[in-house]
Amino acid sequence: MTTNGDSWVLVTGASSGFGEEFARQYAAKGHPLVLVARRLDLLQTLAKKLQQAYGVQVVVEQVDLSDMEAIPALHERLRGQGVTVEILINNAGHGLQGAFLDTPLAATLDMVQLDIASLTAMTRVFGQDMRARGHGKILLVASLLAHYGVEDMAVYGAAKAYVLRLGDALHREFKRDGVTVTSLCPGMSDTGFAQAAKQKVTFALKFLMMKPEPVVRAGIRALNAGRISIVPGINNKAAVAMVWATPRWLHQPLFARIMNG
Fold first, then answer.
1. For residue 20, which of 1, 44, 52 has the smallest C-alpha distance?
2. What CATH code is carried by the domain that includes residue 44?
3. Chain segment 218-234, per-residue pLDDT in tens
4. Is the pLDDT of residue 189 over 90?
5. Choosing a second label site near 143 at 20 to 30 A (CA), which of 69, 181, 182, 193?
6. Pick the residue with more confidence: 234 or 191?
């Protein structure tokens, strides 16, 4: 087994979906892990499995990242334990499908808080440590919807567009300090996101759906290669190419039909 015993990986949203898969793949590479999510029972179960399967050290942190004060507190706890985060996987996020005016304002703002504000704070707090050391890696999990707006997922797509553009800018800023920032833009994936977001899984989306394993592998490869961003999957790449090659009046109705039926 490859050993990376000093290269701690912190994964947010680690209790399920992409976060769980990131944890598994990094554990398989011998990295010690910090698993962060709200569901303590799921985190503890995952930690036990990874420790038994790969013999890596795992720290479990039950944190509600939408609470901004919890982020510097998490940072201080890890520092007190001597944990230096070398790789940050900013995966925690939340989506909702539904008409903008029919979605409760509180639910919309909760999504903005987690997908934008909390991700920004995590990047700032742990990125500052990486700059001081002169090395480190940060992966920002955006979405294919970062490349185009889709009706009934307006705020989620806009939030992920923020993530992608933040990553674009920080890729250049942080590179001066030896730190890599890469954005991952997955399309429809079999992670349980659709159920949590109350998203309609149309026939087209079923056809386009990817398993989390290749998506995560693509993200890790891109991060290690120092790429600015990555869209995993040939169909997803084609969708982005279409966005850039066609006017909005043409591709927006098509994507709306794919997403909403």
1. 44
2. 3.40.50.720
3. 999 999 999 999 999 99
4. no
5. 69
6. 234
Is residue 122 scored above 60 in pLDDT?
yes
Full domain range(s) for residue 163: 8-260
Number of domains in the chain: 1
Residue 2, pLDDT above cutoff 50:
no
- The one-letter code for the residue type at 93 is G
Helix (H) or strand (E) holding 42, with range, is helix 40-54
Distances (CA, A) of 5 to 1, 12, 55, 64, 175: 11, 20, 11, 27, 24
* Residues with Cβ within 8 Å of residue 179, at least 6 apart in sequence: 127, 130, 131, 135, 136, 137, 138
The DSSP annotation for 145-159 comes to GGGS--TT-HHHHHH
Q: What φ, ψ does residue 133 adopt, rounded to 5°? A: -85, -25
Q: Is residue 3 one of the residues assigned to a domain?
A: no
pTM: 0.91
Q: Give the torsion through C-alpha atoms of 141, 157, 148, 234, to 10 deg.
A: 40
The rounded distance, in Å, linking the Cα atoms of 227 and 180 is: 8
